[in-house]
Amino acid sequence: MKVQSKALALFAAVVAPLAVSMSQPASASGGHTLFIRSAVENANATVTLPLYRGTSRGRTVYYVMLDASDGNFAQQFGLNTSQKLANAAGSAGVQRVSIVNGVVDFPATVDFSPIRQITPGPEGFPPASAQPGAVGEPGYSPLIQMPSGIIVNAPHLVNNTGSADKVVSVDLINRRIVYREASAFQGGDPIKYISTESSIAVAAALENATFAPALDALPTLDDDSTASSRAPLAGFINGQTGAANPQRQGINSALLDGLDPLQVVRWNPSQGRYSPMWDVHLTRWSDQLVAAGQNLRQTDYGTIENLAQQGKVTAPDGSPFAASGFIVNCPIVSLK
Length: 336
Prior knowledge:
Mean pLDDT: 95
Shape: globular
Structural class: alpha+beta
Helix content: 10-25%
Strand content: 25-35%
Distance between the termini: 42 Å
C-alpha cells in the first residue's frame, strides 16, 4: 500500500500542474455548467484539454483524463466524478497500469493509422459499409486501473502512429489538445460530450472513434444500477432527417445529413448514477408514427422509456426496447 501511495503521489506531482493551470469553476453564468473543470470549451464546438505523456511497451503515448471513480482524484485533476466506474475494477474492461517515475505505463495503446470509411445505406442506417479510423491494440481500454485501485477514463489520442481523427490540434510543448465536441440531450437539456471509443467497429466508425472491444467486458449489460459501471443511452435509427429540420435526430440523420445524431443519455455528471460508459439502446420508431410524421425529436431518457412502454419505440428488430450489446465512451463536458 505504501508503494502504491508513493507512486500515485509522484504521478500527481508530475501531472497535476497541467490540469490545475486550466481548472475553472464548475459552473458559469447563463445556465451553462462545465463539468470537466480542466476543459476549456471553444466557440467552434471544440474543447481544449490537458494532454498527458505516458508510455506503452517503450513507446511514447499521449492521453487525456476525463472521469475518475474517486472524488478526490477527480477534483484534483478537474475531472468528472463517476463512482460507478469503481465497479469496473478487476474486469477485463480495464487496463491495469503501473507508474514509473510519475509516468503512467499502459499495457496497450491505439493504432491511429487506418483510414476511416463510412458509407450510408439507402435510409442512412444501417450503413452500407463502415471501417473505424483507429483500432485499439489487444487489451486496450481507455479505462485504466491505477496501482491505488482508482479507475480513470484516460483515452489515448496521440502516439507514433498518428492521432485520433477528431483531434483538431496538438501542442506537445504546452501539453494541450483540441478535440471536437458533439451535441446531445440529457433531462430535456442540451449537452456537449466527446466521443473517444466504442466496443464495436460499426459504432466506432459512426462515432469517428477508436474501436476498443475490451469495453464489452465492463459490468453489466443493460444494468443501470449502482452495481454497474454502465449508464443507458438511446440512439434513434429512424428519426427525422434534414439539416434545417428542427425535429432532426438519429443515426440515420447523422449519416445522411453529416450532423450529430443527438443521442439522449440518462444521467449527467452531477448525478450519482452517471457513467461515461454508455450502454447503447438503439431505438426504432414504429412504422405508424414514422408515416404520420410523429417521430419527433426527444430530449429526455425517461420520456423515451415511456414511449417504449406504449410500444411506440422498440429495438431495431421490433423486439422490446433494450440494450443493444455495445458501449460508447462519451464523457459529458458541459450542460446548458
